[in-house]
């Protein structure tokens, strides 16, 4: 795909997309951008309302109760129990998903996008989200390298940016190590076939 074609495609995406994600994902109070949606009075609802504490306590994803919530740096977090809310309120930074709750493998490429509540991993006591099983597998091909790249792009480009504009930029102007979803899937399949994929 030529750069001009990528630009036109990204421009069309900007024009056709709703403005809501632009606002919902960029609260601007220290947690921006975030994988958030606007739902009712909750204008920046983190991770579609899933309980971020539940990943640590029960090791699974679970929707929070709209009546049990906390607002931290203009971002709303919902919880399944009052106990989880109390745990979060005592140490919010311990439970907040890394990279704004976006797909960790996307951040490897400077793209804040995706991040499914049911595809996640706790690494060194921190919560990382992924945009599906394939994306998680691609990240697992080389965790140290990919984590270093994700930390680099989060620190240098993504953190504090507008997710929509950052995403558009990196879809047009790829990072040097850019790989397509198809290329990553082929690498994962090859690693699995050769018995090199981490268990």
Q: Which value, in Å, is the CA radius of gyration?
A: 17 Å
Chain-averaged pLDDT = 91
Query: How many angstroms separate the termini?
Result: 35 Å
Report the principal-axis shape: globular
Helix and strand succession? HHEEHEEHHHEEHHHH
Number of E-state strands = 6
Structural class: alpha+beta
Summarize the biggest pleated sheet: 2 strands, antiparallel
Helix content: 40-55%
Q: Please report the number of helical segments.
A: 10
Percentage of β-strand residues: 15-25%
Stretches where pLDDT is under 50 for at least 5 consecutive residues are: 15-20
Q: If strands are numbered along the chain, what order do they take across the biggest sheet?
A: 1-2
Explain what the structure shows.
- This protein has 199 residues and is α+β, with helices and mostly antiparallel strands.
- The chain contains ten helices and six strands, in the order ααββαββαααββαααα.
- The strands form three sheets. The chain has a two-stranded antiparallel ribbon with strand order 1-2.
- A hairpin with a 2-residue loop joins β5 and β6.
- α1 (3-16) packs antiparallel against α9 and α7 (133-140) packs across α10 (181-193).
Task: Please supply descriptive tags for the structure shown above.
two-stranded antiparallel sheet; 199 residues; 10 helices; alpha+beta
């Amino acid at each position: 795909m030529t750069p001009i074609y990528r630009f036109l495609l990204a421009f069309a995406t900007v024009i056709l997309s709703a403005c809501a994600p632009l606002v919902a994902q960029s609260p601007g109070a220290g947690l921006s951008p975030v994988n958030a949606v606007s739902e009712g009075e909750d204008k920046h609802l983190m991770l579609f309302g899933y309980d971020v504490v539940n990943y640590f306590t029960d090791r699974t994803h679970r929707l929070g109760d709209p009546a049990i919530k906390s607002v931290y740096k203009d971002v709303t977090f919902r919880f399944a129990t009052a106990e989880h809310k109390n745990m979060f309120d005592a140490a919010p930074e311990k439970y907040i998903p890394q990279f704004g709750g976006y797909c960790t493998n996307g951040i490897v490429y400077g793209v804040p996008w995706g991040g499914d509540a049911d595809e996640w991993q706790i690494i060194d006591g921190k919560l990382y989200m992924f945009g599906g099983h394939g994306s998680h597998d691609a990240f697992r091909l080389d965790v140290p390298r990919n984590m270093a790249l994700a930390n680099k792009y989060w620190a240098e480009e993504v953190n504090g940016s507008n997710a929509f504009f950052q995403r558009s930029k990196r879809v047009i102007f790829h990072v040097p190590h850019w790989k397509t979803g198809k290329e990553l899937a082929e690498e994962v399949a090859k690693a699995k076939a050769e018995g090199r994929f981490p268990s």
